[in-house]
Amino acid sequence: MAEKKTFEQSISELEEIVSQLENGDVTLDESLSLFEKGIKLSKGCQKMLDEAEKKVSVLMTDDNGEITKEDFPDLED
After folding, report:
1. Is the Cβ–Cβ distance between 67 and 59 less than 8 Å?
2. Which letter does DSSP use for residue 13 in this model?
3. d(C-alpha 70, C-alpha 74), whole Å
4. What digits encode the pLDDT tens for the residues 10-42?
5. 57: which residues sit within 8 A by CB, 6+ positions away?
6. What is the overall mean pLDDT for the chain?
7. How far apart are CA 31 and CA 37, in angstroms?
């Protein structure tokens, strides 16, 4: 079974695919294959982000079951 990639690994691989496609040194068949792989990686990344958002929402639920929204602290002080 293939090892599940981290978000960072998927983004890195997606950036490499974009670079190869932008470079234009691949055949049409290779381009289509890379594009398909890139779409799968993109959807996987979006799924990971959605799951992370759900976890954050659960962690930010108050005692009444309501989600409290708070601004992240400004880290550039």
Report:
1. no
2. H
3. 12
4. 999 999 999 999 998 999 999 999 999 999 999
5. 67
6. 85
7. 10
Q: How many residues does the chain have?
A: 77
Q: What are the tokens at 21?
A: 């496609």
The 3-state DSSP class for residue 26 equals: coil
- pTM tops 0.85, yes or no: no
The CA-based diameter of the chain, rounded to the nearest angstrom, is 58
Coil, strand or helix at 61? strand
d(CA 32, CA 39): 11
Name, in order, each residue with C-beta under 8 angstroms of 26's C-beta and a sequence gap of 6 or more. Answer: 20, 34
CA dist 20 and 12 (Å) reads 13
As a dihedral over the C-alpha atoms of residue 33, residue 39, residue 45, residue 46, rounded to 10 degrees, the angle is -170
- Report CA-CA distances (Å) from 77 to 20, 33, 71, 73, 74: 38, 45, 15, 9, 7
